[in-house]
Write a structure and sequence with these properties.
The chain is of the alpha+beta class. The protein folds into two domains: 222 residues, Endonuclease Chain A (Endonuclease, Chain A), CATH 3.30.870; 223 residues, 2-Layer Sandwich (Endonuclease, Chain A). Helix content is 38%, strand content 19%. The protein has 16 helices and 21 strands. The strands form three sheets. Strands 1, 12, 13, 14, 15, 16, 18, 19, 20 and 21 form a ten-stranded mixed β-sheet that branches. The protein has a nine-stranded mixed β-sheet with strand order 2-9-7-6-3-4-5-10-11, with helices on both faces. It has a two-stranded parallel sheet with strand order 8-17. The longest helix has 36 residues. It starts with a helix and ends with a helix.
Length: 513
């Protein structure tokens, strides 16, 4: 039975019950995950092109270096751009690079495309929009700023919900930063905290033109159905495009679905064609066809040892690829396999919880302690959010204990003085292996929002290269070293006290944060 067949129940309108046994006919090692290529494009690359970063400062410096050396394109998708000095320095780097490209050729080939969320990017008087308007004014032909507005925030709801609270309805949450043919995938936003003391994850894919093309096209597709920021700080839709909150909702979502799926399917077709050509070329050996291909390409590329699969989740548009793949990975995980899963906001969907509690693999789940939660110390109602996460964690831990699964499913809390925690993703270790062969990295948090409300993207990186596996293993170890194991005594600590009103309200609002 192939892994692809496991996805069949998820494609039906009814809620799936995933009970299929693990794939038994797949080849051993990394290639057992090639079924993901039935849904999305598969990009085979050399592991030498993958670099795992470990710190916010390293991420920030890399962003600046990449902007300064970009020649053809800068594409950045984020929730928002902050308004501090570090963020201004990034904008200054963009301005300097655009200016140089104009001076070098008279008419610049460099294009800058920035995709942000409309509600988060418009918050406050000084915001992401005011930070970027000078670039639009100075380089109108080269800079595009798109602001995605969820189609679910409309009508009376849009008029009544105040700023900040309107962000709970749905967001553009994808984080991709690409410069020419180099791509940075992360969960980090473009804000000073993410450049200094907010721990996240970051992977650089170097010299990967096909992957860079894919994410450029994806950001363009979302940009086309988003509001376009103008030089006078107004916004307007592209000509002929249905408006996200004034136009017909179903028509808008259908257009958005079509645009995004065109990107996914056309890239998948291109990659399959490349794979077919490479396969036939290798089968022919020293035939004339192989010789011609070698001459045309200036020599054959080395065989890939690492595969990148982009996983997109946009439930408002009816796109659920990341959810399908994640559920299948959790379903297939065999006995004695280990899954290290991390999220800055522990609020798993019921489907993910059921799979974790009902399957055979060992789980090590890393989540934020209250003090490193991004909402810790926030004013107003938001200040109670860490307590709500504690309550959700306590309920899940109680269920683990009731099922006597404490050894198989272990919770660990990240704690680091002066830092907050925002890392998300997973690492999969096959049974008997000390190194991971697969990781998921990107924007999803494995919660209700990620699955149902927001626009999300991550990649599955599958590798059979030991050096890259060791990089990923070190990344996992470094994060988990700053954690303590959750036990019953954890919830007896004074800082874990959850007020009654928080307990009562949490079930009602947990799908919004």
């Amino acid at each position: 039975r192939s892994s692809w067949l496991l996805l069949a129940p998820l494609l039906t309108p009814t809620v799936p019950v995933v009970t299929a046994p693990p794939c038994s006919l797949c080849p051993e090692g990394a290639h057992r995950f090639q079924w993901i290529g039935n849904l999305v494009p598969e990009f085979g690359i050399s592991s030498s092109h993958v670099k795992v970063l470990s710190s916010p400062a390293e991420f920030y410096e890399l962003l600046k270096v990449q902007i300064k050396t970009a020649k053809q394109r800068v594409v950045m998708a984020s929730l928002y751009l902050g308004t501090g000095l570090l963020e201004q320095e990034l904008v200054d780097c963009l301005e300097e690079t655009l200016e140089k490209s104009l001076q070098a050729k008279g008419s610049s080939n460099l294009r800058v495309s920035i995709l942000l969320d409309y509600t988060r990017g418009s918050r406050g008087r000084k915001n992401s929009r005011t930070m970027l308007i000078p670039l639009l004014q100075q380089f109108p032909e080269q800079v595009r700023v798109s602001l995605f507005h969820t189609p679910n925030l409309r009508g009376l709801l849009r008029l009544l919900i105040p700023e900040r609270f309107n962000e709970t309805i749905g967001l553009q949450h994808i984080k991709v930063y690409l410069f020419d043919d180099n791509v940075i995938l992360s969960g980090a936003n473009l804000s000073d905290l993410y450049f200094t003391n907010r721990q996240d994850r970051y992977v650089l894919l170097q010299d990967s033109p096909e992957i860079a093309d894919f994410f450029t096209e994806l950001v363009d597709a979302i940009g086309d159905v988003s509001l376009q920021l103008q030089r006078d700080d107004t916004v307007q839709m592209m000509e002929g495009m249905v408006h996200p909150y004034q136009g017909d909702k179903m028509a808008y979502c259908e257009i958005a679905n079509r645009r995004v799926m065109e990107v996914i399917n056309s890239a998948r077709t291109r990659q399959e064609l490349l794979h077919t050509k490479a396969f036939h070329s290798s089968q022919q050996g020293s035939s004339v066809l192989s010789q011609q291909g070698s001459r045309a390409s200036g020599g054959l590329k080395p065989e890939p040892d690492t595969w990148i699969y982009p996983l997109i989740q946009m439930k408002p548009f009816g796109i659920q690829i990341d959810e399908m793949v994640t559920e299948t990975l959790l379903t297939e995980a065999e006995r004695d396999a280990r899954i290290y899963l991390t999220t800055g906001y522990f609020n798993l969907t019921q489907a993910y919880m059921d799979l974790i509690l009902g399957t055979r693999a060992e789980y090590r789940i890393l989540l934020a302690s209250p003090e490193v939660n991004g909402f810790f110390g926030a004013k107003g109602v938001a200040g109670a959010i860490p307590a709500a996460y504690v309550y959700i964690e306590q309920q899940f831990y109680s269920e683990v204990c009731c099922l006597q699964q404490q050894e198989r499913v272990r919770l660990q809390e990240y704690s680091r003085a002066g830092w907050t925690f925002h890392a998300k993703g997973l690492w999969l270790y096959l049974a008997g292996s000390d190194l991971p062969c697969l990781t998921l990295i990107g924007s999803p948090n494995f919660g209700y929002r990620s699955v149902h409300r927001d626009l999300e993207a991550q990649v599955a990186i599958v590798t059979e290269n030991k050096a890259l596996q060791q990089q990923l293993h070190r990344e996992q170890e470094q994060l988990y070293l700053c954690s303590g194991v959750v036990s019953p005594s954890t919830f007896e600590q004074p800082n874990r006290y959850v007020k009654l009103w928080v307990k009562l309200v949490t079930p009602l609002i947990k799908n919004f944060f």
